[in-house]
From TrEMBL:
Highest taxon listed in the record's lineage: Bacteria
Pfam families (alphabetical): DUF3071
Biased composition (Pro residues): 216-232
Species whose genome carries this gene: Mycolicibacterium vanbaalenii (Mycobacterium vanbaalenii)
Region (Disordered): 211-245
Protein name as catalogued: DUF3071 domain-containing protein
Span of domain DUF3071: 1-171
Length: 259
């Protein structure tokens, strides 16, 4: 808390002017009943003022831990409450260890499939799934938080290309490591035994023709077929006149003359 020094009253003598020790900032206090009670040393009025200020700005340790346990970060709690981040960290540290331990236990649990719990653990299953898809299983991050119903939600984060992806599971501690069930589509794809589905749905890419002009080419117009050439009629050869039969018998020509 910063200490102020009283300079005096303002022109109407109803407010008190104060400044900081280094004289860089000035403040005005209204002379109300709470201030008068504090100046008189009235314990009742002074305690009421202190309680009201602390109730607005300070969370109790259990409240800080409840928010952290439900998934909030230290920065989020400090920003929402206006508290100093070091004070929040002091009470949040044991809960953050609890969350990290829950995430670690969940990786040793067995995913529940359609035919029952898998023989492989969650960590072995997702490692196989990532390797099958050409991804690095060593760059995953795990986190966990407790829901209002008391069950744990486990989050796995990883990067594929330029995308930051997440998958969520429900963790139930129990014998042989407990079980985990997929909570979203990404989690279902990770524990899919066939690894047939991709982790990200990809839209089909249209086939692009290379080295094509901007404007489509139009097929050249077909040249009209030339009209069929007609051959000139061949001149008919003169056929020799055939004498009539009676001319042959009589020895005369068809014109009537004798040979």
């Amino acid at each position: 808390m910063r200490e102020l020094r009283v300079l005096g009253l303002d022109v109407d003598s109803r407010r008190i002017i104060c400044e900081t020790d280094d004289s860089t900032e000035k403040f005005i206090l209204r002379s109300d009943e709470r201030l008068k009670a504090a100046v008189r040393g009235d314990q009742v009025g002074s305690n009421q003022t202190t309680i009201e200020v602390e109730a607005k700005n300070v969370l109790r340790p259990k409240e800080i831990q409840a928010k952290i346990r439900s998934g909030a970060s230290v920065e989020q709690v400090a920003s929402a409450s206006g508290m100093d981040i070091s004070r929040v960290e002091r009470f949040a540290h044991p809960v953050l260890l609890e969350r990290a331990r829950a995430a670690e236990l969940a990786t040793a649990a067995h995913p529940v499939l359609a035919d029952g719990p898998s023989v492989l653990t969650l960590l072995e299953t997702v490692t196989t799934a990532l390797v099958a898809r050409g991804l690095d299983p060593d760059v995953t991050n795990w986190d966990a938080w407790r829901n209002e119903d008391g069950r744990w939600t486990v989050q796995m984060s990883w990067t594929a290309g330029r995308s930051d992806l997440q998958a969520h599971f429900r963790f139930a501690p129990g014998a042989h490591g407990g079980t985990v069930t997929a909570f979203d589509d990404a989690a279902c794809e990770l524990i899919d035994p066939s690894f047939a589905r991709p982790l990200r749905p990809l839209a089909p890419v249209a086939q692009l023709a290379l080295d094509e002009p901007d404007t489509p080419l139009t097929p050249p117009a077909e040249a009209p077929e030339p009209p069929p050439t007609t051959k000139p009629p061949r001149p008919k050869k003169g056929r020799p006149a055939v004498p009539a039969w009676e001319d042959v018998l009589l020895g005369v020509r068809s014109s009537g003359g004798q040979r």
